[in-house]
Design brief:
This protein has one domain. Helix content is about 80%, strand content about 0%. The protein contains 4 helices and no strands.
Length: about 130
């Protein structure tokens, strides 16, 4: 439950900044920064939930690493696709930008999985 609260707060903050009731429109840079914060909070929360889930097997670090890698791969691919669409614009087809985002996420996800596994273990101890 503690891990879900920051995720909900970040999603609510992002929705608040996207509302048009303040009379200003968020720039793509602000949206990218807030979505990065939301992505970080979501990955941290899921890492804590994955680490709190105690496996019965003898190798407890393999399953959290793979699950954190899977969540990091999908979340990074979605976020990088959004950022590439904002940065590159109309250059290249959407398929090329999507494949480039997936390739970048594929390169970054093992390192993110290592960091998230240790972060999740730290969050689960509390």
């Amino acid at each position: 439950m503690r891990a879900a609260l920051p995720i909900l707060l970040l999603v609510a903050t992002t929705a608040l900044f996207q509302s048009r009731s303040w009379g200003w429109q968020a720039t793509p840079a602000i949206v990218a920064a807030l979505s990065l914060l939301t992505l970080t909070g979501a990955l941290s929360g899921t890492a804590g939930l994955i680490a709190a889930w105690r496996p019965v097997r003898r190798k407890p670090r393999v399953r959290p690493f793979l699950l954190n890698g899977l969540t990091a791969l999908t979340a990074l691919a979605i976020w990088l696709n959004y950022v590439l669409n904002q940065v590159v614009g109309k250059q290249g087809s959407p398929l090329e930008r999507g494949l480039l985002a997936f390739a970048l996420a594929w390169m970054l996800s093992p390192f993110a999985a290592l960091a998230l596994t240790s972060l999740g273990a730290r969050l689960a101890r509390r």
